[in-house]
């Protein structure tokens, strides 16, 4: 950062009038920048409007300082009157003939009003952007209606990049150099040494109608040879005063209130004093002592200097872009005060182990720098103003343009290379993240499909098992029904056979008796036919009738006895069947006796426990005396 301080001091030498009044656009732009850069940097420190944006808009709006508005009305930003404007006005043809534009007493008034103009609510989102994001600011100005030109943002960005205006934004970021916000009037300005001999260029611009009041002396707005040397001298005085003040400050001045809990980079922190031991803070804040030492990257010993003690793990980046090294401030103190890890702080600033930056150097807290900051020589005490003193001992006033341009180009090339590398790494990381996400999604989908397949297979197996059980039960029931039907049919067949046999035997007996009767009847007929022959035959016929009558009675009795015998035989068979059925029915069930168990009953009746449980609809193996259990089917 030391080169910026020297550069800013050197940049205050005015451009020659040849650049201001003649030459090409590039030369005019360079002259405009040299003449107005201090205003832009001062306004950045006052309001936060980036110096690169202010200078770029000034070049674009004034055609590098040659526009009518700039030369006749000191209006460098094309701001129209609006209802709120109470100052002088200037008629100028822009979007319409003779539009009303603001007219300023001096160029700095125009710069100041430009900053105030951007502070209105419509442009407030721009101030949430980093001050170094000139692309975001340029596009935001177009988006929020600063200009009607559709290519306004692209033109502004090109001017900033072509003229390296970002250098002035970085320079204004250095709070050690205070750029003046007051402009010394020309009448009170004293010419700086070495610049008084430069002649004031003649005014080659044609006069343009103005709205100035009659008789009012028109100020010289185009060239102010004494103005910027006074600014340079004042800036150097302010800088030297700041250094003198810094030299008197104690190196161990407290940076915070000891013991008070604060937030640094979003982390909890407490300011501790030299000689304190972190064990006290570990116990008080319920943090393991070893963990607290690891977080703060300090040994198990009293603190060697005042510093913030972090209670949460430090981050790899700071909450702000940069930090200026104070007098007597170590790298560890800076890391603690910004809540950033020492290793990350070294890597961002290309510092090796044990290297300490010089006071006044600006350390990056978010991006890798292109050049290592100047270091404090070991075992050497640094005088307060050493940071601004060149090796030859002369007082710095400027840096040659070639060296500045070379350094800037090298820095831009390194930044571009770093940006390209970071973008490539970001793209690779994004591609890897997408690939990992796709793999995760594919794995999750495969797992879901596998789970669905397993579930379907399990459901199919369960259904098949249930179907098999149902089919088995159905087959068993059908077999039982068929067996019962067969037994019933066999019993019916048996009854029919017995009845048929008895009936057959009875029929045969009846037929036989009938035949005998018919035979006897035939005999009687014969006898009857012989009856007419003689008395003997009639007596014999009578006797035969008596005998046959007795035989008929006997035959009838015999038939009745036979029928009774058949009926008794049928009844006996039926009783036998009934007794067999009853016995079978009795054998089908078992009455539980005292001391019986389900297992013993199953074993006694040659059954399995499953059969005994299923036949009797039992959910458990316990039985009670007197319980009737089916043991046969």
Strand content: 5-15%
Span between termini:
107 Å
Strand count:
9
Compute the gyration radius: what is it? 62 Å
How many helices? 18
* Uncertain spans: 1-22, 181-253, 379-400, 525-532
Kindly state the mean pLDDT as a whole number? 76
Secondary structure class reads mainly alpha
Largest sheet: 3 strands, antiparallel
Instruction: Sum up the overall morphology in one term.
Output: elongated
Series of H and E elements = HHHHHEEHHHHHEEHHEEHHEHHEHHE
> How helical, in percent, are the residues?
40-55%
Q: Name the strands of the widest sheet in spatial order.
A: 3-4-5
Structural write-up:
Helix 15 runs antiparallel to helix 16 (535-588). The chain has helices at 2-10, 17-21, 25-47, 51-62, 68-73, 107-118, 134-143, 152-162, 166-173, 227-248, 278-284, 289-296, 331-338, 342-349, 401-531, 535-588, 598-604, 609-615, and strands at 89-92, 99-102, 261-264, 267-272, 307-310, 322-324, 362-364, 589-591, 628-630. It is elongated, with a radius of gyration of 62 Å. With 633 residues, it is mainly alpha-helical. Strand 1 (89-92) and strand 2 form a beta hairpin. The strands form four sheets. The protein has a three-stranded antiparallel beta sheet. A two-stranded antiparallel sheet has the order 1-2. It is built from 18 helices and nine strands. Mean pLDDT is 76; it is low at 1-22, 181-253, 379-400 and 525-532.
């Amino acid at each position: 950062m030391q080169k910026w301080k020297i550069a800013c001091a050197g940049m205050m030498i005015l451009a020659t009038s040849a650049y201001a009044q003649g030459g090409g656009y590039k030369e005019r732009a360079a002259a405009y920048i040299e003449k107005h850069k201090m205003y832009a940097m001062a306004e950045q420190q006052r309001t936060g409007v980036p110096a690169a944006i202010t200078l770029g808009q000034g070049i674009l709006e004034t055609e590098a300082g040659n526009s009518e508005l700039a030369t006749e009305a000191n209006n460098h930003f094309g701001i129209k009157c609006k209802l709120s404007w109470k100052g002088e006005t200037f008629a100028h043809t822009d979007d319409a003939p003779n539009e009303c534009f603001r007219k300023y007493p001096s160029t700095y008034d125009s710069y100041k009003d430009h900053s105030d103009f951007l502070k209105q609510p419509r442009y407030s989102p721009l101030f949430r952007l980093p001050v170094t994001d000139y692309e975001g600011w340029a596009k935001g100005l177009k988006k929020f209606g600063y200009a009607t030109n559709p290519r306004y943002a692209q033109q502004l960005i090109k001017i900033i990049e072509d003229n390296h205006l970002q250098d002035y934004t970085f320079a204004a970021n250095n709070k050690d150099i205070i750029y003046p916000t007051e402009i010394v009037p020309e009448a009170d300005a004293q010419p700086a040494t070495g610049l008084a001999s430069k002649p004031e260029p003649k005014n080659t611009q044609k006069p343009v109608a103005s709205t100035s009041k009659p008789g009012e002396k028109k100020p010289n707005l185009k060239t102010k040879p004494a103005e910027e040397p006074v600014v340079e001298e004042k800036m150097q005085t302010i800088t030297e005063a700041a250094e003198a003040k810094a030299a008197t400050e104690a190196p161990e001045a407290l940076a915070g209130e000891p013991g008070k809990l604060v937030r640094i980079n979003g982390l909890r922190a407490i300011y501790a004093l030299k000689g304190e031991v972190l064990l006290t803070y570990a116990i008080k804040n319920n943090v393991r002592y070893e963990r607290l030492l690891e977080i703060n990257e300090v040994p198990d010993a009293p603190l060697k200097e005042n510093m913030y003690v972090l209670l949460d793990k430090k981050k790899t980046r700071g909450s702000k872009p940069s930090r200026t090294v104070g007098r007597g401030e170590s790298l560890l103190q800076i890391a603690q005060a910004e809540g950033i890890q020492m290793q990350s702080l070294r890597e961002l600033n290309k510092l090796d182990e044990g290297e300490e930056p010089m006071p006044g150097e600006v350390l990056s807290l978010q991006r890798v720098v292109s050049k290592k900051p100047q270091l404090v020589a070991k075992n050497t005490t640094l005088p307060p103003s050493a940071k601004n003193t060149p090796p030859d001992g002369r007082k710095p006033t400027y840096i040659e343009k070639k060296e500045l341009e070379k350094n800037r180009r090298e820095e831009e090339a390194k930044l571009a290379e770093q940006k390209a590398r970071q973008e490539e790494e970001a793209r690779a990381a994004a591609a890897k993240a997408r690939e990992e996400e796709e793999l995760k999604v594919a794995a999750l989908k495969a797992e879901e499909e596998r789970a669905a397949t397993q579930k379907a297979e399990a459901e199919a197996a369960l259904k098949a098992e249930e179907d098999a059980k149902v089919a088995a039960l159905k087959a068993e029931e059908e077999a039982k029904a068929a067996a019962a039907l067969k037994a019933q049919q066999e019993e019916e067949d048996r009854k029919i056979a017995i009845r048929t046999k008895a009936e057959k035997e009875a029929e045969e007996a009846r037929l036989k008796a009938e035949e005998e009767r018919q035979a006897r009847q035939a005999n009687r007929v014969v006898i009857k036919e012989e009856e007419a022959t003689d008395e003997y035959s009639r007596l014999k016929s009578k006797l035969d009738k008596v005998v046959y009558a007795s035989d008929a009675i006997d035959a009838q009795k015999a038939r009745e006895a036979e029928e009774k015998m058949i009926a008794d035989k049928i009844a006996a068979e039926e009783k036998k069947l009934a007794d067999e059925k009853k016995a079978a029915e009795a054998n089908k069930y078992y009455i539980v006796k005292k001391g019986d168990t389900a297992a013993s009953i199953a074993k006694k009746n040659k059954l399995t426990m499953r059969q005994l449980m299923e036949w009797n609809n039992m959910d458990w193996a316990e039985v009670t005396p007197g319980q009737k259990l089916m043991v046969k089917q």
